[in-house]
Amino acid sequence: MKKISVNIDGTSDRHVKNPKTTAQTLQRVLVKAVALAYAMLKVICNHAFEGVTNGFECMNKFKKVNLKYLRERAATLQNSGQSLSQFFQFMPIDSDKWSPFAAIISQGHLPEIKVGIDAEGGHKAYVNTPSRTYADFVSSWGLQRGDQMTFVTVQKREEKYEVNYARLILNPRNADGSGAPMTTEIVNSQGDFPCSNWKNRLNFSTFEFDTDHFNFVLGRGGVVVAAGIIVSRKDKSGDWFRSNCQLVLNEAGFGSDLCSLAEAVEKSYTTADIDMESELYLNNAGQGGSGTTGDVTPSGGAGGVTPGQPSYNTNAAINGVSQSIAGGSVTATAPITSVAVSGTNLGDVTFTAKVDGTGDAINPTSHDANGVTFTGLNVEADHSLVVYRGGTVWFTITAQASDGPIGDAE
Protein backbone atom coordinates (compact mmCIF):
# COMPACT_ATOMS: atom_id res chain seq x y z
CA MET A 1 0.00 0.00 0.00
CA LYS A 2 1.29 3.44 -0.89
CA LYS A 3 1.67 5.80 2.01
CA ILE A 4 0.43 9.37 1.82
CA SER A 5 1.56 12.26 3.99
CA VAL A 6 -0.36 15.50 4.36
CA ASN A 7 1.50 18.79 4.36
CA ILE A 8 0.61 21.81 6.45
CA ASP A 9 -1.31 23.29 3.55
CA GLY A 10 -3.40 20.12 3.15
CA THR A 11 -1.63 18.81 0.02
CA SER A 12 -0.34 15.24 -0.22
CA ASP A 13 3.04 13.70 -0.99
CA ARG A 14 3.20 10.06 -2.19
CA HIS A 15 5.94 7.47 -1.65
CA VAL A 16 7.02 8.95 1.68
CA LYS A 17 9.26 6.54 3.56
CA ASN A 18 8.90 8.15 6.98
CA PRO A 19 5.27 8.27 8.18
CA LYS A 20 6.25 10.41 11.19
CA THR A 21 7.32 13.59 9.50
CA THR A 22 6.61 16.91 11.16
CA ALA A 23 3.85 17.60 8.63
CA GLN A 24 2.14 14.27 9.31
CA THR A 25 2.39 14.61 13.06
CA LEU A 26 1.06 18.14 12.87
CA GLN A 27 -1.86 16.98 10.76
CA ARG A 28 -2.81 14.40 13.38
CA VAL A 29 -2.56 17.06 16.10
CA LEU A 30 -4.83 19.42 14.18
CA VAL A 31 -7.41 16.75 13.36
CA LYS A 32 -7.50 15.70 17.01
CA ALA A 33 -7.84 19.30 18.21
CA VAL A 34 -10.75 20.00 15.86
CA ALA A 35 -12.50 16.73 16.74
CA LEU A 36 -12.29 17.49 20.47
CA ALA A 37 -13.51 21.06 19.93
CA TYR A 38 -16.51 19.77 18.02
CA ALA A 39 -17.25 17.21 20.74
CA MET A 40 -17.29 20.03 23.29
CA LEU A 41 -19.44 22.34 21.17
CA LYS A 42 -21.63 19.87 19.27
CA VAL A 43 -24.80 20.90 21.08
CA ILE A 44 -24.73 24.22 19.22
CA CYS A 45 -22.28 23.68 16.36
CA ASN A 46 -24.39 20.94 14.80
CA HIS A 47 -26.76 23.71 13.63
CA ALA A 48 -24.63 26.87 13.79
CA PHE A 49 -23.76 27.38 10.12
CA GLU A 50 -26.26 29.38 8.10
CA GLY A 51 -27.48 27.64 4.96
CA VAL A 52 -25.94 24.29 5.96
CA THR A 53 -28.12 21.29 6.83
CA ASN A 54 -28.24 20.54 10.56
CA GLY A 55 -26.25 17.60 11.87
CA PHE A 56 -23.71 15.77 9.73
CA GLU A 57 -23.28 18.59 7.18
CA CYS A 58 -22.72 21.17 9.93
CA MET A 59 -20.16 18.88 11.58
CA ASN A 60 -18.25 18.61 8.31
CA LYS A 61 -18.42 22.39 7.86
CA PHE A 62 -17.07 22.96 11.37
CA LYS A 63 -14.16 20.59 10.79
CA LYS A 64 -13.36 22.00 7.35
CA VAL A 65 -13.24 25.68 8.35
CA ASN A 66 -11.31 25.03 11.55
CA LEU A 67 -8.72 22.74 9.97
CA LYS A 68 -8.18 25.40 7.31
CA TYR A 69 -7.73 28.05 10.01
CA LEU A 70 -5.21 25.97 11.97
CA ARG A 71 -3.24 24.97 8.86
CA GLU A 72 -2.97 28.59 7.81
CA ARG A 73 -1.77 29.56 11.28
CA ALA A 74 0.84 26.80 11.20
CA ALA A 75 2.01 27.83 7.72
CA THR A 76 2.31 31.47 8.83
CA LEU A 77 4.45 30.49 11.80
CA GLN A 78 6.61 28.17 9.75
CA ASN A 79 7.12 30.70 6.98
CA SER A 80 8.23 33.29 9.50
CA GLY A 81 10.82 30.89 10.89
CA GLN A 82 9.01 30.24 14.16
CA SER A 83 8.71 26.90 15.90
CA LEU A 84 5.53 24.83 15.65
CA SER A 85 5.97 23.69 19.24
CA GLN A 86 2.90 25.60 20.41
CA PHE A 87 0.66 23.26 18.40
CA PHE A 88 2.09 20.24 20.18
CA GLN A 89 1.85 22.07 23.49
CA PHE A 90 -1.87 22.72 23.35
CA MET A 91 -2.66 19.30 21.85
CA PRO A 92 -0.14 16.63 22.91
CA ILE A 93 -0.77 13.85 20.41
CA ASP A 94 -0.31 10.89 22.76
CA SER A 95 -2.22 12.16 25.80
CA ASP A 96 -5.65 13.36 26.88
CA LYS A 97 -4.41 16.90 27.42
CA TRP A 98 -6.02 19.72 25.48
CA SER A 99 -6.27 23.49 25.52
CA PRO A 100 -9.01 25.36 23.61
CA PHE A 101 -8.13 27.23 20.44
CA ALA A 102 -9.82 30.11 18.60
CA ALA A 103 -12.43 27.87 17.00
CA ILE A 104 -14.90 29.19 14.41
CA ILE A 105 -18.22 28.14 15.93
CA SER A 106 -20.78 29.78 13.62
CA GLN A 107 -21.04 31.47 10.24
CA GLY A 108 -23.77 33.63 8.72
CA HIS A 109 -24.62 37.12 7.55
CA LEU A 110 -26.12 38.67 10.73
CA PRO A 111 -24.18 41.42 12.56
CA GLU A 112 -21.25 40.02 14.50
CA ILE A 113 -20.88 40.84 18.20
CA LYS A 114 -17.25 41.31 19.18
CA VAL A 115 -16.33 39.80 22.55
CA GLY A 116 -13.22 40.43 24.65
CA ILE A 117 -11.73 38.89 27.78
CA ASP A 118 -10.35 41.06 30.57
CA ALA A 119 -7.43 39.05 31.92
CA GLU A 120 -6.67 41.73 34.50
CA GLY A 121 -10.21 42.15 35.82
CA GLY A 122 -11.06 38.73 37.14
CA HIS A 123 -10.84 36.96 33.78
CA LYS A 124 -14.34 37.99 32.69
CA ALA A 125 -15.63 38.12 29.14
CA TYR A 126 -17.14 41.42 28.02
CA VAL A 127 -19.06 43.21 25.26
CA ASN A 128 -18.47 46.90 24.59
CA THR A 129 -21.43 49.29 24.50
CA PRO A 130 -21.60 53.11 24.74
CA SER A 131 -23.99 53.03 27.70
CA ARG A 132 -26.00 50.61 29.77
CA THR A 133 -29.33 51.13 28.03
CA TYR A 134 -31.15 48.48 26.03
CA ALA A 135 -31.57 50.91 23.12
CA ASP A 136 -27.84 51.65 22.86
CA PHE A 137 -26.93 47.99 23.11
CA VAL A 138 -29.32 47.03 20.31
CA SER A 139 -28.23 49.97 18.14
CA SER A 140 -24.50 49.40 18.67
CA TRP A 141 -24.61 45.81 17.48
CA GLY A 142 -27.28 46.00 14.78
CA LEU A 143 -29.75 43.83 16.70
CA GLN A 144 -33.52 43.90 16.72
CA ARG A 145 -36.34 42.78 18.96
CA GLY A 146 -36.75 39.00 18.97
CA ASP A 147 -33.07 38.26 18.24
CA GLN A 148 -31.51 35.47 20.27
CA MET A 149 -28.08 36.00 21.75
CA THR A 150 -26.31 32.76 22.66
CA PHE A 151 -23.37 33.31 25.01
CA VAL A 152 -20.63 30.65 24.85
CA THR A 153 -17.66 30.36 27.18
CA VAL A 154 -14.92 27.85 27.88
CA GLN A 155 -13.99 28.20 31.54
CA LYS A 156 -11.29 26.52 33.58
CA ARG A 157 -12.47 25.10 36.89
CA GLU A 158 -10.77 22.52 39.07
CA GLU A 159 -8.24 21.63 36.38
CA LYS A 160 -10.93 20.99 33.78
CA TYR A 161 -12.30 22.99 30.88
CA GLU A 162 -16.07 23.48 30.92
CA VAL A 163 -18.20 24.72 28.06
CA ASN A 164 -21.09 26.86 29.28
CA TYR A 165 -24.04 28.30 27.40
CA ALA A 166 -26.63 30.97 28.15
CA ARG A 167 -29.26 32.28 25.79
CA LEU A 168 -31.63 35.19 25.91
CA ILE A 169 -34.16 36.61 23.50
CA LEU A 170 -34.27 40.41 23.23
CA ASN A 171 -37.77 41.13 24.44
CA PRO A 172 -40.06 41.49 21.41
CA ARG A 173 -42.47 43.62 23.45
CA ASN A 174 -40.01 46.42 24.15
CA ALA A 175 -39.62 49.25 21.67
CA ASP A 176 -36.20 49.48 20.03
CA GLY A 177 -35.87 52.92 21.66
CA SER A 178 -36.27 51.63 25.21
CA GLY A 179 -34.13 53.61 27.60
CA ALA A 180 -34.26 50.96 30.32
CA PRO A 181 -30.88 49.80 31.63
CA MET A 182 -29.66 46.68 29.83
CA THR A 183 -29.23 44.94 33.17
CA THR A 184 -32.92 45.34 34.00
CA GLU A 185 -33.93 44.28 30.50
CA ILE A 186 -31.89 41.12 30.81
CA VAL A 187 -31.63 40.35 34.51
CA ASN A 188 -33.98 42.03 36.99
CA SER A 189 -33.38 42.59 40.69
CA GLN A 190 -34.47 39.03 41.46
CA GLY A 191 -31.93 37.59 38.99
CA ASP A 192 -34.63 36.52 36.55
CA PHE A 193 -35.12 37.36 32.90
CA PRO A 194 -38.25 39.58 32.61
CA CYS A 195 -39.79 37.27 29.97
CA SER A 196 -40.83 34.06 31.68
CA ASN A 197 -40.89 31.82 28.60
CA TRP A 198 -38.81 28.64 28.94
CA LYS A 199 -36.92 29.42 25.76
CA ASN A 200 -34.90 32.03 27.68
CA ARG A 201 -32.24 30.04 29.48
CA LEU A 202 -29.93 32.12 31.65
CA ASN A 203 -26.82 30.62 33.13
CA PHE A 204 -24.86 33.68 34.27
CA SER A 205 -22.81 33.86 37.42
CA THR A 206 -21.83 37.43 36.41
CA PHE A 207 -23.74 39.92 34.25
CA GLU A 208 -22.82 43.50 35.11
CA PHE A 209 -22.19 46.87 33.52
CA ASP A 210 -18.74 48.41 34.07
CA THR A 211 -18.04 51.87 32.59
CA ASP A 212 -18.52 51.07 28.90
CA HIS A 213 -19.04 47.33 28.67
CA PHE A 214 -20.97 44.39 30.07
CA ASN A 215 -18.99 41.69 31.84
CA PHE A 216 -20.24 38.13 31.86
CA VAL A 217 -19.18 34.79 33.33
CA LEU A 218 -21.34 31.71 32.88
CA GLY A 219 -22.25 28.67 34.88
CA ARG A 220 -20.40 28.03 38.10
CA GLY A 221 -17.71 30.61 37.43
CA GLY A 222 -14.00 30.10 36.93
CA VAL A 223 -11.37 31.60 34.63
CA VAL A 224 -12.83 32.46 31.23
CA VAL A 225 -10.47 30.87 28.71
CA ALA A 226 -12.48 31.51 25.53
CA ALA A 227 -15.76 33.26 24.76
CA GLY A 228 -18.10 34.26 21.95
CA ILE A 229 -21.69 35.27 21.16
CA ILE A 230 -23.85 33.89 18.35
CA VAL A 231 -26.80 35.94 17.10
CA SER A 232 -29.79 34.00 15.73
CA ARG A 233 -32.80 35.40 13.89
CA LYS A 234 -35.90 33.92 12.27
CA ASP A 235 -37.47 35.73 9.34
CA LYS A 236 -41.14 35.74 8.35
CA SER A 237 -40.61 32.86 5.92
CA GLY A 238 -39.32 30.66 8.74
CA ASP A 239 -35.65 30.69 7.65
CA TRP A 240 -32.98 30.86 10.33
CA PHE A 241 -29.95 33.13 10.16
CA ARG A 242 -26.71 33.29 12.17
CA SER A 243 -23.86 35.66 12.84
CA ASN A 244 -20.18 34.84 12.43
CA CYS A 245 -18.51 33.87 15.67
CA GLN A 246 -14.91 32.86 16.32
CA LEU A 247 -13.98 32.28 19.92
CA VAL A 248 -11.80 35.02 21.38
CA LEU A 249 -9.08 33.84 23.74
CA ASN A 250 -7.74 34.80 27.11
CA GLU A 251 -4.13 35.50 26.26
CA ALA A 252 -2.88 35.65 29.84
CA GLY A 253 0.25 33.56 30.13
CA PHE A 254 0.56 32.67 26.47
CA GLY A 255 0.57 35.68 24.15
CA SER A 256 -0.57 33.89 20.99
CA ASP A 257 -3.74 34.17 18.93
CA LEU A 258 -3.69 30.44 18.29
CA CYS A 259 -4.46 28.86 21.62
CA SER A 260 -5.39 30.18 24.99
CA LEU A 261 -3.29 28.93 27.89
CA ALA A 262 0.25 27.60 27.79
CA GLU A 263 -0.61 24.54 29.84
CA ALA A 264 -3.06 21.97 28.60
CA VAL A 265 -4.95 20.07 31.27
CA GLU A 266 -5.78 16.46 31.92
CA LYS A 267 -9.36 15.19 31.61
CA SER A 268 -9.56 17.27 28.52
CA TYR A 269 -13.10 18.59 28.69
CA THR A 270 -16.35 18.66 30.59
CA THR A 271 -19.45 19.96 28.83
CA ALA A 272 -21.73 21.62 31.37
CA ASP A 273 -25.34 20.44 31.43
CA ILE A 274 -27.87 22.63 29.66
CA ASP A 275 -31.61 22.35 29.38
CA MET A 276 -32.34 21.15 25.87
CA GLU A 277 -36.12 21.50 25.78
CA SER A 278 -35.60 22.38 22.14
CA GLU A 279 -33.55 20.01 20.01
CA LEU A 280 -31.84 23.03 18.41
CA TYR A 281 -30.51 25.33 21.10
CA LEU A 282 -29.91 28.27 18.75
CA ASN A 283 -33.38 28.14 17.20
CA ASN A 284 -35.47 29.90 19.81
CA ALA A 285 -35.45 33.52 18.71
CA GLY A 286 -38.71 35.44 18.66
CA GLN A 287 -40.01 37.27 15.62
CA GLY A 288 -39.44 40.90 16.64
CA GLY A 289 -40.02 44.26 15.06
CA SER A 290 -43.77 44.73 15.49
CA GLY A 291 -44.00 44.98 19.25
CA THR A 292 -47.02 42.66 19.24
CA THR A 293 -45.44 39.22 19.36
CA GLY A 294 -44.77 37.14 22.42
CA ASP A 295 -41.39 36.09 23.78
CA VAL A 296 -41.04 33.68 20.88
CA THR A 297 -42.66 33.45 17.49
CA PRO A 298 -46.38 32.86 18.17
CA SER A 299 -48.55 30.58 16.09
CA GLY A 300 -52.06 31.32 14.89
CA GLY A 301 -54.63 33.75 16.19
CA ALA A 302 -55.53 37.29 15.19
CA GLY A 303 -52.53 39.55 14.99
CA GLY A 304 -50.21 36.58 15.37
CA VAL A 305 -51.08 36.04 19.05
CA THR A 306 -52.13 32.56 20.09
CA PRO A 307 -55.67 32.54 21.54
CA GLY A 308 -55.98 31.35 25.11
CA GLN A 309 -56.30 32.36 28.72
CA PRO A 310 -54.57 35.56 29.90
CA SER A 311 -51.14 35.14 31.47
CA TYR A 312 -49.26 37.82 33.37
CA ASN A 313 -45.59 38.52 33.89
CA THR A 314 -44.48 38.77 37.51
CA ASN A 315 -42.56 42.01 36.91
CA ALA A 316 -43.69 45.57 36.24
CA ALA A 317 -41.67 48.48 34.86
CA ILE A 318 -42.15 51.19 37.47
CA ASN A 319 -40.64 54.51 36.43
CA GLY A 320 -38.87 52.47 33.74
CA VAL A 321 -37.25 50.05 36.20
CA SER A 322 -38.29 46.38 36.29
CA GLN A 323 -39.47 45.22 39.73
CA SER A 324 -41.12 42.06 40.97
CA ILE A 325 -44.85 42.31 41.74
CA ALA A 326 -45.20 38.65 42.63
CA GLY A 327 -45.70 39.46 46.33
CA GLY A 328 -48.56 41.87 45.68
CA SER A 329 -46.77 44.95 46.98
CA VAL A 330 -43.64 46.87 46.04
CA THR A 331 -41.96 50.20 46.85
CA ALA A 332 -40.61 52.77 44.42
CA THR A 333 -38.92 56.15 44.64
CA ALA A 334 -41.36 59.06 44.50
CA PRO A 335 -42.88 60.36 42.37
CA ILE A 336 -44.35 57.37 40.58
CA THR A 337 -44.90 58.58 37.02
CA SER A 338 -45.36 55.42 34.94
CA VAL A 339 -46.24 51.75 35.34
CA ALA A 340 -46.13 49.12 32.59
CA VAL A 341 -47.10 45.46 32.87
CA SER A 342 -47.10 42.74 30.24
CA GLY A 343 -48.39 39.28 29.49
CA THR A 344 -50.39 37.53 26.78
CA ASN A 345 -54.05 37.56 25.74
CA LEU A 346 -54.76 40.68 27.82
CA GLY A 347 -57.02 42.44 25.30
CA ASP A 348 -60.29 41.56 27.05
CA VAL A 349 -59.05 42.17 30.61
CA THR A 350 -60.04 45.44 32.31
CA PHE A 351 -57.21 47.34 34.01
CA THR A 352 -57.55 50.41 36.22
CA ALA A 353 -55.57 52.13 38.98
CA LYS A 354 -56.36 54.38 41.95
CA VAL A 355 -54.20 56.58 44.15
CA ASP A 356 -54.35 55.18 47.71
CA GLY A 357 -57.08 52.86 46.45
CA THR A 358 -59.70 55.57 46.56
CA GLY A 359 -61.24 58.21 44.32
CA ASP A 360 -61.64 58.13 40.57
CA ALA A 361 -60.29 55.23 38.59
CA ILE A 362 -57.30 55.92 36.32
CA ASN A 363 -57.52 54.27 32.93
CA PRO A 364 -54.47 52.96 31.03
CA THR A 365 -52.70 55.20 28.54
CA SER A 366 -52.27 52.19 26.26
CA HIS A 367 -53.65 48.66 26.36
CA ASP A 368 -53.36 45.73 23.96
CA ALA A 369 -53.12 41.95 24.05
CA ASN A 370 -49.53 42.05 25.28
CA GLY A 371 -49.61 44.67 27.99
CA VAL A 372 -50.96 47.79 29.63
CA THR A 373 -49.24 51.09 30.46
CA PHE A 374 -50.16 53.94 32.81
CA THR A 375 -48.29 57.19 32.13
CA GLY A 376 -48.62 60.83 33.26
CA LEU A 377 -48.94 59.77 36.90
CA ASN A 378 -47.74 61.83 39.86
CA VAL A 379 -47.93 59.70 42.98
CA GLU A 380 -45.96 61.48 45.69
CA ALA A 381 -44.08 60.09 48.69
CA ASP A 382 -46.16 58.43 51.44
CA HIS A 383 -48.92 57.66 48.93
CA SER A 384 -49.61 54.52 46.96
CA LEU A 385 -50.93 53.41 43.60
CA VAL A 386 -53.24 50.40 43.59
CA VAL A 387 -53.46 48.55 40.25
CA TYR A 388 -56.63 46.55 39.57
CA ARG A 389 -57.01 43.61 37.19
CA GLY A 390 -60.55 42.64 36.24
CA GLY A 391 -61.90 44.71 39.14
CA THR A 392 -59.69 42.97 41.73
CA VAL A 393 -56.57 44.39 43.38
CA TRP A 394 -53.51 43.05 41.55
CA PHE A 395 -50.64 44.85 43.29
CA THR A 396 -49.87 48.02 45.24
CA ILE A 397 -46.91 50.36 44.73
CA THR A 398 -45.94 52.54 47.68
CA ALA A 399 -44.02 55.72 46.85
CA GLN A 400 -41.24 56.70 49.22
CA ALA A 401 -38.78 59.56 49.42
CA SER A 402 -35.46 59.11 47.61
CA ASP A 403 -33.61 58.64 50.89
CA GLY A 404 -35.98 55.88 51.93
CA PRO A 405 -38.41 55.62 54.86
CA ILE A 406 -37.79 58.01 57.77
CA GLY A 407 -38.18 56.49 61.20
CA ASP A 408 -39.38 58.17 64.39
CA ALA A 409 -36.93 60.64 65.91
CA GLU A 410 -35.31 59.46 69.08
Written description of the protein model:
The chain has 410 residues and is of the alpha+beta class. The protein folds into 2 domains: 4-271, no CATH class; 311-400, Immunoglobulin-like, CATH 2.60.40. It is built from 5 helices and 23 strands. The strands form 6 sheets. Strands 6, 7, 10, 11, 13 and 14 form a 6-stranded mixed sheet that branches. Strands 16-15-18-21-20 form a 5-stranded antiparallel sheet, with no helix packed on it. Strands 4-5-9-8 form a 4-stranded antiparallel sheet, with no helix packed on it. The chain starts with a strand and ends in a 10-residue tail after the last strand.
How does the helix and strand content classify structurally? Answer: alpha+beta
Shape: elongated
Mean pLDDT: 75
For the biggest sheet, the summary is: 6 strands, mixed
Secondary-structure element series: EEHHHEEEHEEHEEEEEEEEEEEEEEEE
Q: Number of helix segments?
A: 5
Radius of gyration: 26 Å
Strand content: 25-35%
- What's the end-to-end separation, in Å? 98 Å
Q: Regions with pLDDT < 50 over 5+ consecutive residues?
A: 1-10, 189-199, 253-257, 288-308, 405-410
Using DSSP, what is the number of strands? 23
Indicate how many domains the architecture comprises.
Answer: 2
Helical coverage, percent range:
10-25%
Topology:
Blueprint: E1 4-6, E2 12-14, H1 22-45, H2 56-79, H3 85-90, E3 104-106, E4 116-118, E5 124-128, H4 134-141, E6 148-157, E7 160-169, H5 182-186, E8 204-210, E9 213-218, E10 223-234, E11 240-242, E12 245-246, E13 248-249, E14 270-271, E15 311-318, E16 321-324, E17 329-333, E18 339-344, E19 351-355, E20 366-368, E21 371-374, E22 384-389, E23 392-400
Parallel strand pairs: 7-14, 17-23
Antiparallel strand pairs: 1-2, 3-12, 4-5, 5-9, 6-7, 6-10, 8-9, 10-11, 10-13, 15-16, 15-18, 18-21, 19-22, 20-21, 22-23
Helix pairs in contact: 1-2
